Amino acid sequence: MAKFPGSGLLKGLGVTFKELVTPAVTVQYPHVKEAPPTRARGVIALKEENCTVCMLCARECPDWCIYIEGHNDKAPPRREGGKPRTVNKLDRFDIDYALCMYCGICVEVCPFDALFWSPEFEYSEVRIADLLHDKDKLGEWMEGVPEPPPLEVGAQKGKK
Amino acid sequence: MSSVLNPLLGVDLGFGWLAAIKILAVYAVVPVGALLYVYVFLFKMVSHMQSRLGPMEAGPHGVLQAPVELLKFLQKEDIFPARADRRVFALAPFVVFMSTFLLFVIIPAGPRLVAEDLDTGVFFALAVSSLSVIGILMAGWASANKYSVTGGLRAAGQLIAYELPMVLAVVGVVMQAGTMSLQGIVHAQADGAIFGVDVIGNPYILTQFLGFLIFAIAAQAELTQTPFDMPVAESELVAGYLTEYSGVRFLLFFMAEFASAFAFAAIGAVLYFGGWYVPGVEGLAADILGPVVMLTKVMILGFIIFWVRFTLPRFREDQLQMFAWKYLIPLSLVNILATGIFKVAF
After folding, report:
1. 20 to 30 A from B158, CA-CA: which of A108, A112, B180, B278?
2. Entry pTM
């Protein structure tokens, strides 16, 4: 475009006019729903059987929004005639989404792959107390968790 | 207007009835025009310019959103700041609104559809439009708020600075038409000819293009629309003289802003685009087509006002003053000189 005083103003007017005649990029949310990206950080899901009550997530959580309670339990010995093993049983695992800031540190820090990001995002509540999701609710979110990305070529699989 | 109403109703309405009908008509036009502008430009056009849809829920494509907003403001509490000058504070929005209201008195929407066709129409329009400065100063001063005072003073300085180029730009049209009456100016454009071709008359945008540019810029500043929105610069003055207003009084300021944009677009359409005149249409057809054509022109001019408003960033105060005094006023004087020379020469 030719340079003359005020040409920038015309250029700006051109940009807004172009946007005026191009369709909007937004969608009318409750009527039209966009599928979130596969790995969107919508909600944190809990795979209960992997949790060992190590408390790492609760301790690393910057908002202290994870509440964990557990107890020691006896499990049958691995070998015949051995001593019964001590295992940690999870009694309570709550995430308060009213406090959570979706930093994902708990998911990062979990050494046993018990926490996952799920792309679900529609869990707003009328009462703020209902945003406290217990371990059953967190377990339900596992449904939406996508498969882990494939390993790199030549990578060794884990023992289990 | 009386020449429309008297035959229509079959009675000779007295002065009182006619005046009442005119006042009611103008009272109806002000909010309708304001709401039309708010919906079409403030709600929808700016939304689409920002790649979104704007209000979509209230009525089809959100057409009822503007009336809903109006009702919302009516419900809100009318707050007076503790140390405000209560009487002046309460009165200020009405002064501003009155200035807007009076503008509509002289705007012709058709050959016979005008509340009052004053012989000094242009003069009257420019005089009453600058009345709003008083209301804005009252609002700024009475709010007992430093932001409001700053906003009010900025508004006063700006409106005075841009009143001059506007008056001087319009002088060109008045000289060319040889009349100050807005109906007279429409007729002058309708009867005029471009180099002997009189198919579309002679809209003054062609001969007074410089004048129109100055008029448009000055009108943008008079309406305190961006890029001339220093008085309400929200990033530095909260909302300028509007800061302390709420409820119905804020609504009056808000309506006045958009209604006066409507009025200025109408005046611009009359002065430079031939107003209600449709080439080759006369009599009753002109009475019906005239308002439609006029409204179309008003919407197009409004589109330009708000297109600029939603695109350009704000002038700094010194740039704003410099632009008026150093560029616009000398240019408009040159325009008057040129118009005078052409008037004498041809």
Report:
1. B180
2. 0.79
